[in-house]
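Exercise 7.
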Amino acid sequence: MNVIWDLGECSSAEVTAVFTRKRPLAPTTIRTVLANLRKKGYLEPVPSIERGFRLRATVDRESVARRTLKALVSSLFGGSPRQAIAYLLKHEEISDSDRAEIRQMLDLHPQGKHP
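Solution. The predicted structure, written as tokens, is:
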């Protein structure tokens, strides 16, 4: 999905060309994933005068990130954002500049309100 979000409206050949530069996968594998994303409703075909059709994301990155993170926190950390953050602080390398930015976000975030 990241490749499609970055490209915008695109063909499966364009997705394959970009993706195979990052990770060596067979074009048939990428087309299978694209077909599955279409079945799930994440992509839709766009009529085109080209030989094939073009694809467009039906969901934006932000909504997928929000849902995925919420499900991850729920399933792995009992719904506790505090436990998820504690895990990241303990097990991930976080630079000093990232820590400072996180502190600033916490200081500016209103209590009990979601942006």
